[in-house]
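Quick one - inputs below.
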Amino acid sequence: MKAEIITIGDEILIGQIVDTNAAYIAQRLNAVGFVVNERSSVGDRAEQIVRSIEQSLERSDVVITTGGLGPTKDDITKTTLARMFGGGMRCDKRVEEHVRTMLAARNIEFNELNRSQALVPESCEVLFNAHGTAPGMWFEREGKVVISLPGVPFEMRHLMEDEVLPRLKSRFSLRQIVHRTMITAGIAESMLAARIAEWEDALPEYLHLAYLPSPNIVRLRLSAYEVDGESVEREIEEQFRMLEKLISENVVGYENATMQEQVHRLLVESGKTLAVAESCTGGSIAAKFTAMAGASAYLLCGVVAYANEAKRDILGVDASLIEKYGAVSEQVARAMAEGARRISGADFAVATTGIAGPTGGSAEKPVGTVWFAVASERGTEAMMRISDTDRGQIIDRATAYAIEFLRNHIKAQN
Amino acid sequence: MKAEIITIGDEILIGQIVDTNAAYIAQRLNAVGFVVNERSSVGDRAEQIVRSIEQSLERSDVVITTGGLGPTKDDITKTTLARMFGGGMRCDKRVEEHVRTMLAARNIEFNELNRSQALVPESCEVLFNAHGTAPGMWFEREGKVVISLPGVPFEMRHLMEDEVLPRLKSRFSLRQIVHRTMITAGIAESMLAARIAEWEDALPEYLHLAYLPSPNIVRLRLSAYEVDGESVEREIEEQFRMLEKLISENVVGYENATMQEQVHRLLVESGKTLAVAESCTGGSIAAKFTAMAGASAYLLCGVVAYANEAKRDILGVDASLIEKYGAVSEQVARAMAEGARRISGADFAVATTGIAGPTGGSAEKPVGTVWFAVASERGTEAMMRISDTDRGQIIDRATAYAIEFLRNHIKAQN
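Output:
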């Protein structure tokens, strides 16, 4: 079965927001067996919305739209769909009651605009939105389905899980879609492709290989669309096992498991603890770990030692080291990691110190220079990387490198 | 002039990545005067790419595609465009030299796949990619332009700035597009709309108002598309000044200025300094500040005091407070902020302590309970918020609330 996603809103077309809804919906549709044919984004204009839905319906069985369901004048998705599918509007008592209750809890008065949120097209089935004031809608025409969801990501996600996916699964007979991703590191995309060319050429026709390069990492995804039987997953596992033999030193893991998820698992399983000392990454490393449920099992503390005084007073970095070698130096990175480990009693500590720019660089230490250190009972390791990019990228890459460095250090001890 | 954006790649359609390229390109096109008509994403399939580009060309003057330019077999954008625009392929010597130099610097051997990256359609003008191995391409047909850029965000951005935008500006006669955004806080979208209804109805026809709600914040955007003369910006300023009188207590700023950008500016202008003490937000607050160039002027340190021992040993929180009131309490939040200020000597300190979940909640302190404190020479303030959502949202909202709380505290002293 084929599906398409249409996100509605001028804010998407002018680039005021990044469209995360489409990726989420695509992922979930794939998981239940829909091939997503195409995605598009249109403005808050009726003729565009209608044309885009009609085109998608020609190609696909299900169309999911998000956005344009707010109570204000710029939101026109509901009235547009009502006209498209015919019939009048009716007041949905359950929605009205829910909106009243939600607003009362927030001390907001119920007004005409809120009342309009309970008005729904007679042609749709209401998808109850427990987490917001705009209901979702389910329309059918000639065996095809159009679903309209609010654009607020949190509300959309709950509606997808609680209302949309269960209905789609019972409404359509779906075949499986399987995606598996292997993560490789330390080998360039072109070298990797050359090394695995024979393996790639011998893949069964129904398996599609994709290369997904990012700094220092190339992910290899094998996809099978709308296949039958359990043998597909086994076949993919077998193919990856053959591949592992070809590039064993470069395989770092499977699926979208991020580097921090790997560290998380290693630490949780071993019962070891972690401390983080960050200068140029400024809290990003700690935030990557604390974003994961259960991080409190191992993360003892993080120190964002931005000023030299913080490096000295909190982490106990010897001021003479900073003076002699500079704050961005192997010596200071090592002292930061060791200091974080000392003050927290953690088993492992990781530290960064670098020049994120745009200013502060020199000929000897250009913007993008970052020193990393990892300390544990086995001693302290340090490394340096230079990223020739902009501030955001330098911080992102340094965060990724630091977590990979930490992971390798932990793994070497297992 | 109208433009469309097509992002190419199965990884977008299966939701393996979030498409940030489209938002960036849309923003930059708007800035130089292109109305972005529609955005779409298609898979790595020739017939889809061709159909999608042809449809876009019917509606628009310029089509920008990203993705599908890598050296591996799954990337087919270049050969597809070559067939679409006719003619053969040629080797671009400058690109080949550049690829050789880039790979040599990274100790990667130059192979057949890399050589293929220097092959370009004879029908295109090459857009030199100084930051990667895949060149951009510029095609023309009947006065319309198709531009193909690599999908790697960093390379795409540099090509947009250095090659694409300058050419578009000289190739087309463009009129201005103006977007201005006012940020309001503390008033629900429906109440806001009711309060400003008269003002909204009296807006000149060429100004479009959009409501952009997010937790605790509603942004109001006025847009004017393809207008002439300098009076438009003045008219928008004037409209916003009238609006300010209607909702003066709710206006918190303009443009996409985030709360952290406002704090950044307040601190840089006043020469005051900041320390951050985070428990449940886990480094996110510090990371928001350090993401901005120049944060080192005021950010002295951050402490991610996840474990109780870290709160005690690094921030000097009295262990008896934690025992008596619990780690998630007004008393501990206050002590964390005061401790961060004390150990760093910062003028301001902000602290969070809460239960991000999914476990750790109780009847008295459910998951989502977060205490905030801000300390300065004027004393310490605290507040509590409960977010009834999931871990990611709880951390995001707590980060936003903390920065807003800090901003209000700083502003009250100005």
